[in-house]
Design goal:
mainly alpha, two-stranded antiparallel ribbon, two-stranded parallel sheet, 6% strand, binds FE2/S2 (inorganic) cluster
């Protein structure tokens, strides 16, 4: 007997509430995409401005501090402020080191599964929200250039771990107050919180969770991976919160170091 095949055509740009009606939703469904768009746009504008500044990213021994902005760490070009480098440098003319550094953390965020969902909704309206019509009539997924590049996320994850380690090193160095000894300032706390949030964001990553517990037929033969997977799963549930908190805090950390480095603010010594 022949099997009758039936399929329902999905019209992406179609209506959800009847002819000419994009949705029947009466709530403020548009609020989330608008907030997402505003915060991401503000971050992109600020980080681009900060990356091109190429100054006020390090607070050094002249004020008994060792604070470097996360946007400029590790400082790798020959003209980096003395003390902010990690010992090996490239001669790249007057190019801002942040332009090289930010490729990796921004690549990590840009390809993040959560951010992808957010900016597809906020910027492309694809779809803007649940039960709201797409702004586009076609959808090819992430199978073609440039969106196929989103598959690089797992590699950016590893690069992110290297940057987290470097920022942790910076946070430890911030306990050092050249000429005064060891202590804690507001800057130390800011750099420590920043590094902790970035670790939490990375460890809550879906690729990280898959790395620990994915691609296994059973957990019983992999007790260590099971333990990591169990540890990371609750963190993974907070990935959205960590994505926003760490994004905003990393920008605030740059603002703080910038204000102290420019002399507009004094880094208060706690003890
Ligand atoms: S899924 Fe968001 S950082 Fe990996």
């Amino acid at each position: 007997m022949a099997v009758m095949e039936s399929s329902t055509k999905v019209v992406l740009g179609g209506t959800r509430g009847g002819p000419g009606v994009a949705t029947l939703r009466k709530d403020r469904w548009w609020l989330q995409p608008v907030v997402t768009m505003s915060v991401l746009t503000a971050f992109v504008i600020y980080s681009t401005w900060a990356a091109f500044q190429n100054r006020n990213y390090f607070v050094g021994a002249n004020v008994h501090r060792d604070l470097v902005s996360p946007f400029y760490s590790p400082c790798l070009t020959t003209h980096c402020v003395a003390g902010s480098t990690v010992g090996f440098v490239f001669g790249l003319g007057s190019l801002s080191p942040a332009l090289l550094i930010l490729i990796f953390p921004l690549g990590f965020r840009l390809t993040c599964y959560y951010y992808r969902r957010s900016y597809y909704r906020a910027f492309w309206w694809s779809p803007p929200s649940c039960a709201v019509a797409d702004a586009h009539v076609a959808y090819s997924g992430e199978t073609r250039f440039p969106l196929i590049m989103q598959n690089l996320h797992r590699y950016f994850f590893f690069a992110g771990l290297i940057f987290n380690s470097l920022l942790t090193y910076d946070a430890v160095r911030a306990f050092q107050q050249p000429g005064l000894g060891w202590g804690v300032t507001v800057g130390t706390v800011v750099l420590c919180v920043d590094a902790a949030l970035l670790w939490a964001y990375s460890l809550s990553c879906h690729a990280c969770r898959h790395l620990c517990g994915g691609n296994l037929k059973n957990f019983s033969e992999h007790p260590l991976r099971y333990r990591f997977w169990k540890l990371l799963t609750p963190l993974n549930a907070k990935h959205m919160n960590l994505a926003w908190t760490s994004l905003i805090f990393v920008a605030l950390t740059d603002v703080y170091v910038r204000l102290v480095a420019s002399g507009a603010l004094t880094d208060y010594k706690i003890f």
